Amino acid sequence: MIIFEKENGIFYLNTKNTTYAMEVAEGKYLLHRYWGKRLKNPLDKADEYNYMRRCLVPADINGKNSDILPFEYSTWGNADMRIPAAEFTFSDGSRVSRFEYRDYNISSGKSGIDGLPAVYCEAGDRVDTLTVRLEDTLQKVDIVLSYSVFEDYDAITRSVKIINRGERLLLDSALSAAVDFYGSPELEIMHLDGTWARERYITRQPVRPGNQSVGSRYGCSSPFHNPFIALCDKNADEKHGNVYGFSLVYSGNFIAGAERNPYNGVRAYIGINPANFQFVLESGDSFQTPEAVLVYSANGIGEMSRIYHRLYRTRLCRGKYRDTERFVLINNWEATYFDFNEEKIVGIAKRAAKIGIDTMVLDDGWFSSRIKDDNGLGDWYENRDRLPNGLEGLAEKINSLGMRFGLWFEPEMVNPGTELYKKHPDWILHVNGREPYEVRNQYTLDFSRDDVCNYITETLCGILSRANIEYIKWDMNRCMSAPGSAFWSGERQGEVMHRYILGLYKVLETVTQRFPNVLFESCASGGSRFDPGMLYYMPQTWTSDDSDAVERLKIQYGTSVVYPYSAMGAHVSAVPNHQVGRITSFAMRCNVAMPGQFGFELDLNGCSEKELETAEKAIKDYRKYGGIFHKGDCYRLCSPFDSDISAVQFIAEDKNTVILTVNSSKATPNAPDEYIRLEGLDESACYRCEGTDKCFGGDYLMNVGWYFVNNSENKSSIIILKKEN
Ligand code: DGJ
After folding, report:
1. For a pocket test of ligand 1, which of 334, 363, 370 has the largest count of ligand atoms closer than 8 A to its C-beta?
2. Position in ligand 1 atom list of the atom nearest CA 524
3. Mind listing the pLDDT tens digit for each residue in 285-330?
């Protein structure tokens, strides 16, 4: 998998279908040489003709311009004035660094990253790890680049450790990965953007001259941009073209972008956002970056997504619920908001149990003075007016219906009126002497502090130990502002936002490990923290607060560019929809939610018998086919961003069942004929359509397609095709 060809100083990192190569030039400069389709022949040494002399820009390596040399991990001042991967301020005030190659190590397998979530390997996986050490001899600093090659997954993970052996220094930025592309005049950049209730819409545009980036400075990965970009050929689509994905396993501030120079060169990068970041490294200290996951596909965006899905579902998500069927839950939020008591919740649960829902989740409002969203967060004890029998009593009642009981928490927050805040006003993120900002009437607890993290861990674990709680929805409903800490010294305030995320990860690790039987779902005003970091601790995320079936077509489609449907919480809610006022059929709401982690978010007591029958059948179908949506291969066939139709196909792991989901955002009068071409079928096999006597050839379905008319009858369908031998 990993070869070091000593003669030419070239490292080859080979997965099943890809090669990533680096070269040690002149015995000291680590240059990026190649990333793409697996190479059949060795590379030559980098030569003059690769890196010509250019006017104006500084020359370094034997007269070749280092400003355009593809440094594998470029640092500021090393005669490379493009976006640096790392920047320092040294004790002498200088900011210039020069890192040279020192040595390398190849080992089998992959170790975890201390304190940070990361993709892992299991016994039997073909995974090797290369570390390459670079050194700045003057300042006595090492940079250790780690690459783990997941041969069968076709993925490479990268992370970086910076070790200070010299005098105290300031680390001003430390990205996780940068890759130079040469001869790429027409590359495009793709990212997932949005805001609350319309997260992860797909954006794609040419890489323009100069620098362009997306990122977050909000303290969470945010709904505005996702920690992911892909560079792709101009003509790349779902099935064709070169696509290079960069995804960051991190839940805080990030930056991801591309800088194009005048010579058809593009540097892509991803990592912690350098804005409001600065770490003090004393002599002997080190800094570990989060992990970037690099995926190359020669066959379009669809293949890149399937690689991420497989890797994240099986080698990022962990725990009991990684592979097992999860819960079909009903959540009371959109059914009652803050207006509930035990009787109402049990009433919802009773109706839900009758149609096969297995988990009742009690959302916001069950604790202390929380009767609306302006108080209570932080005082985590039951409101006895609402829950006279406490959580234990309610859980028992729900359990007696044959259902599990689940609970909502927002552990990272505090309302100003609470006992917790009155006792510990310095436990929030703030800057001394400045009025802190409230968002949704609440402050962010300072998770960069151990005492805060320990308090929250013990409070949560205490509640989980005394009542039979089998599911937790971990919510987070505001971005950070004025992110200072009363705990850290003035010179360490630049560490607070990253330390917050480290604290959060520590709490999550402890709580999830202490309660391995609890299913955790992450949430942040819907999908404001839908990122690989959170998936490491909690295998599913509430995808969006927008539960409208039509809006969800785009949100789920965009989310699937990186994340598997098994990670997406998706619920059937009431109509007119609470976010957009739209009325969709009950069947369509079920069909749109079903490929995700299927659930309900309404009071079923208000539903008609026909709707309840539809729900009951959908739950049965989901139990039968959920494994295909979640573990099968996903193909996006028609994009809701391009037309009124959204079509997504799933192929079971054994390839014998194919599910086609087709939904339309609006019907067309006297609609034209559409043929939706399926993918990945066996062209010589026949596929029988369940519930009919119709049989279609795999070749027909892939070349001609599934006939569809976008009229009101067909607006939403799930078609099951069984392969016949
Ligand atoms: C935001 C979440 O996304 C909602 O589902 C709900 O849990 C509310 N918070 C409760 O405050």
Report:
1. 363
2. 3
3. 999 999 999 999 999 999 999 999 999 999 999 999 999 999 999 9
Look at residue 48 and tell me whether its pLDDT is greater than 60.
Answer: no
Task: Determine whether the shortest distance from the Cβ of 475 to ligand 1 is under 6 A.
Answer: yes
Please tell me the distance from the alpha carbon of residue 60 to that of residue 556, in angstroms, as a whole number: 48
The single-letter code of the amino acid at 237 is D
Is 41 a residue whose pLDDT tops 80?
yes
For residues 289 and 160, the answer to whether their CB atoms sit within 8 Å is: yes
Q: What is the pLDDT of residue 50?
A: 64
Q: For 398-425, write each residue's pLDDT tens digit.
A: 999 999 999 999 999 999 999 999 999 9
Whole-angstrom CA distances from 235 to 16, 112, 263, 326, 558 are 24, 38, 21, 39, 19
What pLDDT digit, counting tens, does each position of 528-546 carry? 999 999 999 999 999 999 9
Task: Report whether 176 contacts 292 (CB < 8 A).
Answer: yes
Q: Is 523 in the pocket of ligand 1 (CB under 6 A)?
A: yes
Determine how many CB atoms are found less than 10 A away from the CB of residue 208: 11
Tell me the one-letter amino acid at 195: T
At residue 344, the pLDDT reads 98
Q: Which of 618, 576, 339 is nearest to 348 (CA)?
A: 339
**Which atom of ligand 1 is closest in space to residue 373's alpha carbon?**
11
Ligand 1 centroid to Cα of residue 364, in Å, is 7
pTM tops 0.85: yes
Tokens 């029998």 found at: 389
Q: Which residues are paired to 648 by β-bridges?
A: 636, 661
Task: Verify whether ligand 1 is closer than 6 Å to residue 261 (CB atom).
Answer: no
Q: Which of 421, 409, 503, 425 is nearest to 464 (CA)?
A: 409
Mean pLDDT of 639-668: 96
For the stretch 682-717, what's the b/e string if a residue is b when 16 or more beta carbons lie within 10 angstroms of its beta carbon?
beebbbebeeeeeebbbebbbeebbebebeeebbbb
Ligand 1 mutation target, pool 334, 374, 408, most atoms within 8 A of CB = 408
Residue 334 Cβ inside 6 Å of ligand 1? The answer reads no
Which numbered atom of ligand 1 lies nearest the CA of 473? 7
Active site residue 545: yes
Triad 563, 530, 469: Cα angle to 5°: 105
Ligand 1 pocket, residue 536 CB under 6 Å = no
**475 among known catalytic residues:** yes
Q: For residue 525, how far is its CA from the centre of ligand 1 (angstroms)?
A: 6
Q: Is any ligand 1 atom within 6 A of the Cβ of residue 543?
A: no
> Element (H or E) spanning 329, and its range?
strand 329-331
Cα separation, 592 vs 551, in Å, equals 10
β 279-281/188-195 pair status: unpaired
Q: Write the DSSP symbol of residue 604.
A: G
- Distance, in Å, from the CA atom of 240 to the CA atom of 262, rounded to the nearest integer, reads 27
Q: Whose CA is nearest to atom 9 of ligand 1?
A: 525
The enclosing H or E element of 148 equals strand 141-150
pLDDT-derived band of residue 725, with 50, 70 and 90 as boundaries? confident
The Å distance, Cα 477 to ligand 1 centre, comes to 8
Residue 442: its pLDDT value, please?
98
Express as a percent the part of the chain with pLDDT over 90: 92
Indicate if the pLDDT at residue 678 is higher than 90: yes
The CB of 67 under 6 Å from ligand 1? The reply is no
Instruction: Say if residue 122 is exposed, middle or buried (CB neighbours under 10 Å; 0-12, 13-18, 19+).
Output: exposed
Across the range 473-488, mean pLDDT stands at: 96
* Distant-in-sequence, close-in-space partners of 354: CB < 8 Å, separation ≥ 6: none
